[in-house]
Write a structure and sequence with these properties.
Layout (H helix, E strand, L loop, with lengths): L1 H5 L11 H4 L1 H5 L12 H6 L1 H12 L26 E10 L12 H15 L8 E5 L5 H9 L9 H5 L11 E5 L4 E5 L5 E8 L3 H23 L5 E2 L3 E2 L12 E7 L1 H6 L1 H10 L2 E4 L12 E6 L7 H25 L5
Helix pairs in contact: 6-9
């Protein structure tokens, strides 16, 4: 009866409907969430559908509130320098109030978001200064370089397609990166902004520090241009198009070699990560398989914990896995 009550409703910001929100769940049967929001209104107007899903996925109570905390000085320690960490990457999603989210954003809103960012990014200074590369009319040499750097996002993801996130492709989308290639913004991919901080090695604290500065810079530049803030909900934290990203929208990850855990078995590693509130993946992203001994290890939670807590969990968990990996290498007679 929720459907009867809500199916005729259209949101004010982007005219989004419940049918559009659940398109992926209707089309595919492999969804772990299967519902997307087309704008901030979707979470309010269709709360009867969204709320139970969000509470179940994130394990929060109906009256939970979300608190953000980006104070780098609260972090204790860092990843052990002797751990074989190849690279560290932390990303968040952000969306500007008053514009639709990517599943529902109108063509005009998408172009306006890009225009806003383009003009804001010209004011980035110091180690955040860089260039914006729109996907439309992209020079082949630039495109190839972005592919080689693993910076380019592509079209063709079936979920994003069915969810309405690839409408008017590639218009209004683009990539910004600083000169050092350690700070990146994806514009109008799954969220209006994916803000990314990354570098080689395991200095998680340094990467987080840059991220905090970057979020702040993007936020204040956008506000100076438009007078608008990022969407921030007291219950659900930073608003994203996918409910799984609500809260911090943050994924802090390292690529680390775990030969001992590899010998022990992927299922055992997965179970151990679960205990440490982490998520292991192959190093080819979400849907890629596992190759060799290098794993992508990231925080599992997004909502109900602050940014500092999640980064701390990741640091502690990676150190623990490394410590155990050294023991497992002895057990399986692996010589470095």
């Amino acid at each position: 009866e929720k459907w009867d009550k809500l199916s005729g409703k259209k949101t004010a910001t982007s005219g989004f409907t419940l049918a559009k929100a659940i398109a992926c769940a209707v089309e595919f049967d492999n969804q772990h969430c299967g519902i997307y929001a087309g704008d901030w209104d979707s979470y309010k107007d269709f709360a009867a559908v969204f709320d139970p899903i969000i509470q179940e996925y994130h394990g929060i109570s109906a009256d939970a509130k979300h608190t953000s905390d980006m104070d780098v000085s609260k972090l204790v320690g860092n990843v052990d320098p002797s751990a074989p960490v190849k690279s560290t990457r932390i990303r968040v999603g952000r969306n500007i109030d008053g514009f639709g989210l990517s599943a529902g954003i109108t063509q005009q809103q998408r172009v306006d978001v890009e225009k806003l960012f383009k003009s804001a990014s010209k004011k980035f200074s110091g180690d955040l200064a860089g260039d914006y590369y729109p996907l439309t009319g992209m020079d082949e040499k630039v495109r190839q370089q972005l592919v080689d750097d693993h910076f380019l996002f592509m079209s063709g993801d079936p979920n994003l397609k069915v969810g309405g996130m690839e409408r008017d492709w590639p218009e209004g989308r683009g990539i910004f990166h600083n000169n050092e290639k350690t700070f990146l913004v994806w514009v109008n991919e799954e969220d209006q902004f994916r803000i990314i901080s990354m570098q080689k090695g395991g200095d998680v604290k340094g990467v987080f520090e840059r991220l905090v500065k970057a979020i702040d810079t993007v936020g204040s530049s956008v506000k100076a241009e438009s007078g608008k803030e990022f969407m921030l909900d007291e219950k659900y934290g930073y608003i994203h198009t996918c409910p799984t990203n609500l809260g911090t929208g943050m994924r802090a990850s390292v690529h680390i070699d775990l030969p001992g855990w590899t010998a022990e078995g992927a299922d055992k590693l997965k179970a151990r990560c679960e205990e440490l509130a982490l998520q292991p993946r192959g190093t080819r992203g979400e849907s890629g398989g596992q190759t060799g001994i290098t794993y992508d290890i990231s925080n599992k939670h997004r909502l109900g914990y602050s940014e500092v807590q999640l980064v701390q969990t990741m640091i502690n968990g990676v150190n623990k896995l490394y410590e155990e990996d050294v023991e497992l290498q002895k057990k399986h007679n692996i010589s470095a």
